[in-house]
From TrEMBL:
This is Phosphoribosylaminoimidazole-succinocarboxamide synthase. GO terms for biological process: 'de novo' IMP biosynthetic process; cobalamin biosynthetic process. Pfam families: SAICAR_synt. The gene is purC. NCBIfam families: purC. CDD domains: SAICAR_synt_PurC. Residues 7-231 form the SAICAR synthetase/ADE2 N-terminal domain. Pathway: Purine metabolism; IMP biosynthesis via de novo pathway; 5-amino-1-(5-phospho-D-ribosyl)imidazole-4-carboxamide from 5-amino-1-(5-phospho-D-ribosyl)imidazole-4-carboxylate: step 1/2. The keyword Secreted does not apply. It is an enzyme of class 6 (ligase). It comes from Anaerosolibacter carboniphilus. The keyword Glycosyltransferase does not apply. Belongs to the SAICAR synthetase family.
Length: 234
């Protein structure tokens, strides 16, 4: 499949039209940003790792009944996906307190949540992706009530499946962010699932195995991304 016009360039990915109007090509970049673009850098081969890891996880989820945009891995940095219309929502699922939740609620990082927490943010760089609730989503028509219900149920299902898969590889799934899109009128999982979008801690040592190494200048960034992929491929 040939790449045509670039539709979108984000912080970590480019999206291209193809000869098939129902398919896009996603190209994963090595660029890394944090804190809404304030911190910028590159992580060597991140694009390759995130492409391969997302492909592997989308395949797993699809097999377990979660519809995703993934079609096929094309090469090291590119995948073919369904041409979804992305809903402007970041869907965050949390099992353990970390990052912005720990800060907001004054919790120590690593405190287990009694129940899984789901948050929605409005995907809008100018506003800094503010947190919103189901009522806001409906009130400003970001998604319908039915779509929100489906997104919630898929997000919890993804959490259940990924938690199980990761722990088997010696990784604790602390939290993660999903994005959904609409394709043929149906809500499906889109975007990526990678160390950029998940917090993963080593199950034995609690070592951070994700983008927090870049955000917080913890070192061994490339090596850790590689290590996560190689564990998942075993
Ligand atoms: O920063 P915060 O603690 O809210 O992030 C929660 C989870 O969502 C983390 O796994 C983070 O990597 C992910 N996230 C993301 N993209 C954003 C915001 C958060 O992938 N724009």
């Amino acid at each position: 499949m040939k790449k045509l016009e670039m539709l979108y360039e984000g912080k970590a990915k480019k999206v291209f039209k193809t000869e098939d109007e129902k398919k896009y090509i996603v190209e994963y970049k090595d660029d890394a940003t944090a804190f809404n673009g304030l911190k910028k850098g590159t992580i060597g081969d991140k694009g390759v790792i995130n492409n391969k890891m997302s492909a592997l996880l989308f395949k797993l989820l699809e097999e377990k009944g979660v519809p995703t945009h993934f079609e096929e891995l094309l090469n090291d940095r590119e995948m073919l996906v369904k041409a979804v219309e992305i809903l402007p929502l970041e869907v965050i699922v949390r099992n353990v307190a970390a990052g912005s939740l720990a800060k907001r609620l004054g919790l120590e990082e690593g405190v287990e949540m009694k129940t899984t927490v789901l948050e929605f943010c409005y995907k809008n760089d100018d506003l800094g992706d503010p947190m919103i609730n189901d009522d806001h989503i409906e009130a400003i028509a970001l998604a319908t009530k039915e779509q929100v219900a489906l997104i919630r149920s898929y997000a919890f299902q993804v959490n259940h499946l990924l938690k199980e898969f990761f722990i088997d590889k010696g990784l604790k799934l602390i939290d993660f962010k999903l994005e959904f899109g609409v394709y043929d009128g149906k809500v499906i999982l889109a975007d990526e699932i990678s160390p950029d979008t998940c917090r993963l801690w080593d199950a034995e040592t609690n070592k951070k195995m994700d983008k927090d190494r870049f955000r917080r200048d913890l070192g061994e960034v490339e090596e850790t991304y590689q290590e996560v992929l190689s564990r998942l491929q075993k």
